[in-house]
Amino acid sequence: MTDHALAVVRAGALTTVQDLGRPGHAHLGVPRSGALDPPAAGLANRLVGNPVGAAVLETTLDGCTVRPRSTVTVAATGAPCRVTVDGRPVAWGAPVRVPAGALLDVGPATAGVRTYVAVSGGVAVEPVLGSRSADLLSGLGPSPLTDGAVLPLGRSAGPHARVDVAPQPAPPTELVLRVTLGPRADWFSPEAVRVLTSRVYRVSPASNRIGLRTEGPALDRAITRELPSEGMVLGAVQVPPDGRPLVFLADHPTTGGYPVIAVVRTPDLPAAAQARPGTPIRFLAVRR
């Protein structure tokens, strides 16, 4: 049993191991996966001296609690939360030394949804197709954390950052998603396109790592026949039979049989990862 590991004391509602994902395998039916908020995950890694693509923990809403078996440096970024070491408050958004055997508690998010916890050396679970990311749709990669699990750690690659607190964007109070219309915008009525780009939607509680579901006005189809399954990309805005737009996120399927009315610009997707249920959404049409 290695002493360079993390023991999971409290797994939280949904905590997964994530890195930058496994792009390039869509032709095999393998989703990209990876951290839903890559800038936050990358920042956490830089704070502890890891390469930007090292595997981190992605928590959902209520954090997690772990106990390192050796002294490590950790950093929590993304959704703000209370962080303690053996009950003592420590900095969020900054590198923190955690002694061997100490209890690191990453508390519930006070805003946003997903907190990223980087540990010096990175989480060193076995990679699958070049990535350590957990993919909830395909089941590839490590399973979501459970109480009592033990995660191996890699060796520290360099010194941690010398900062007090690293600046990072606040979770959105309103989510503005820039979209390029198409490729199936002509399957919808002109009024539906106008509704999508002028009305306010809200984040649905049914959202997850596969997609951000919305609540709001339904979009009417102009073409109602079946659509043969076709390739899907990150950020695709698919419209299922209920007419409510669904924005595909990191664990999205590689194909789908419902029309895609638009595609969200990739730089806007990290904010979508931090948008809580009920957050207003505006879709803003932009040119290519």
How do the helices and strands follow one another from N- to C-terminus? Answer: EEHEEEEEEEEEEHEEEEEEEHE
Strand order of the largest sheet: 12-19-16-17-14-13-20
- Silhouette: elongated
Rg calculated over all Cα atoms:
20 Å
* Unreliable stretches covering 5 or more consecutive residues: none
Q: Give the strand tally.
A: 20
Largest sheet features: 7 strands, mixed, barrel
Helix fraction, binned, reads under 10%
Helical/strand content category: mainly beta
**In whole angstroms, how far apart are the ends?**
53 Å
- Taken as a percent bin, the fraction of beta residues is 25-35%
How large is the count of helical segments? 3
Mean pLDDT level: 96
Summary?
The chain has helices spanning 38-48, 190-196, 269-273; strands at 5-10, 16-18, 56-60, 64-68, 72-78, 81-85, 88-90, 96-98, 104-109, 114-119, 150-152, 175-181, 201-203, 211-215, 230-231, 236-238, 246-248, 255-256, 260-264, 280-285. By secondary structure, the protein is mainly beta. The longest helix is centred in the N-terminal third of the chain and has 11 residues, at 38-48.
Q: Keywords, please?
A:
3 helices, seven-stranded mixed β-barrel, 288 residues, six-stranded antiparallel β-sheet, elongated, mainly beta
